[in-house]
Design a protein that fits this description.
By secondary structure, the chain is an alpha/beta fold. It has one domain: Aldolase class I (TIM Barrel). Helices cover about 35% and strands about 20% of the residues. It contains 8 helices and 15 strands. The protein has an 8-stranded parallel β-barrel, surrounded by 6 helices. It has a two-stranded antiparallel sheet with strand order 1-2. Strand 12 and strand 13 form a beta hairpin. Helix 4 (about 120-130) packs across helix 5 (about 145-155). The radius of gyration is 17 Å and the shape is globular. It starts with a strand and ends with a helix.
């Protein structure tokens, strides 16, 4: 299993999982700073590596009327300030090829959204920045389809990749996680990320909004860690019910410490740490 270098630490190998976390979308600078500060405090106390995540734009909202974020210019300015203030690596989404070089000036990890994981031009533009690329497996894809995704990025000159599982379409308006897929993707030699909060989504179940059930997040997280995944992705908000996006499945900030504490215990058993 290769290790991918991010800032001053690596992801992969038989070491403690890395936490990728933050609000789904940048709603305000105050929100982003308050969540980043608390998550850094928690991860420092628990001794795990942490990558801060939030999106400047949510381009795949269920409804045209749903808020999308603060936009690329203001969003990157806020993320840059978080990076400098808390000395944290940053992960954020890119949705179009032209965004990649601009976002790479701030973000340590460029994330390819699941719906766009087969978009060749976007994958190659992200890879060509030289930044680490976190690729979310599409809900419509089999685990072995990720081999072709890897090949596109490697052909563009970048093998600094993370492969992310976030559930597979299961009929209408539902997702299911096939834990066998984590085993398959780990066999490709790249670190695997488990997206614990998007995996409990119920896409567009409410018509104009996506639903979900955050109760299942810790259980799926621990199941993935028992397989040996290299990173956990979790969206976190102080008041999820008021969040602009993913209100039903984001973790409540006050619940994060005990959830991650238990996750570390599972990770230790799995990896004999």
């Amino acid at each position: 299993m290769r290790q991918v270098q991010i800032s001053n630490f690596s992801v992969g190998g038989n070491q403690r999982f890395t936490l990728i976390a933050g609000p789904c979308v940048i709603e305000s600078e105050d929100l982003i700073f308050s969540v980043a500060e608390e998550l850094k405090r928690i991860t420092d106390d628990l001794g795990i590596h942490f990558i801060f995540k939030s999106s400047f734009d949510k381009a795949n909202r269920s409804s045209i009327s749903s808020p999308r974020g603060v936009g690329i210019e203001q969003g990157l300015r806020i993320l840059q300030r978080v990076k400098e203030t808390y000395n944290l690596p940053i992960l954020t989404d890119v949705h179009e090829s032209w965004q990649c070089a601009i976002v790479a000036e701030v973000a340590d990890v460029l994330q390819i959204p699941a719906f766009l994981s087969r978009q060749t031009d976007l994958l190659m533009a992200a890879a060509q920045t030289g930044r680490v690329v976190n690729i979310k497996k599409g809900q419509f894809m089999a685990p072995w389809d990720m081999k072709q995704v890897i090949a596109k990025c490697v052909d563009a000159g970048n093998d600094q990749l993370l492969l992310c599982e976030r559930g597979t379409s299961f009929g209408y308006n539902n997702l299911v996680v096939d834990m066998r897929g984590l085993v398959d993707m780990r066999s490709y030699g790249y670190p695997v990320v488990f997206d614990a909060t998007h995996s409990v989504q119920k896409p567009s179940i409410n018509g104009t909004t996506t639903g979900g059930d955050r109760r299942y997040v810790p259980y799926l997280m621990n199941a993935a860690l028992s397989i040996g995944v290299d990173a956990i992705f979790a969206e976190v908000h102080p008041c999820p019910e008021k969040a602009w996006s993913d209100a039903a499945n984001q973790l409540k900030l006050s619940d994060v410490r005990p959830i991650i504490t238990h996750a570390i215990a599972v990770d230790s058993l799995t990896k004999n740490l």
